[in-house]
Amino acid sequence: MLETLTRTVVVNGDSVRTRATTLARLLAELGYGDRKVATAVDGEFVPAARRAETTIAGGERVEIVAPRQGG
Predict the structure, then answer these.
(1) CA 69, CA 47: separation in Å to the nearest integer?
(2) Rounded mean pLDDT of the chain?
(3) Residues 20, 28: Cα–Cα separation, whole Å
(4) Which residue of 19, 39, 57, 58 is most buried, as measured by CB atoms within 10 A?
């Protein structure tokens, strides 16, 4: 079963081992769930509607940015 294999991706500058095969699964695995965040893979913006189809094979650079409140 391929999904049991782990792969390494870089998330916000930190190396992370994951079993996720899509960006949506990676976000869930990291605890983001349904939170409103902006995402990019290898420097390319990925809208929320495309996260489930955006594959993670290993080696990607993923950026996750959550909105902040305050001034």
Answers:
(1) 21
(2) 92
(3) 9
(4) 39
The number of domains in the chain is 1
Please check whether residue 68 is in contact with residue 35, taking contact to mean a CB–CB distance below 8 angstroms: no
Residues 6+ apart with CB under 8 A from 25: 19, 56
What value does the mean pLDDT take over residues 44-50? 97
Q: What are phi and psi of 46, to 5 degrees?
A: -120, 110
pLDDT over 50 at 58, yes or no: yes
Q: Where are the alpha helices (DSSP H) in the chain?
A: 23-29
CA distance 9 to 56: 8
Per the domain annotation, does 71 fall within a domain? no
> What's this model's pTM, rounded to 2 decimal places?
0.88
70 domain-assigned: no
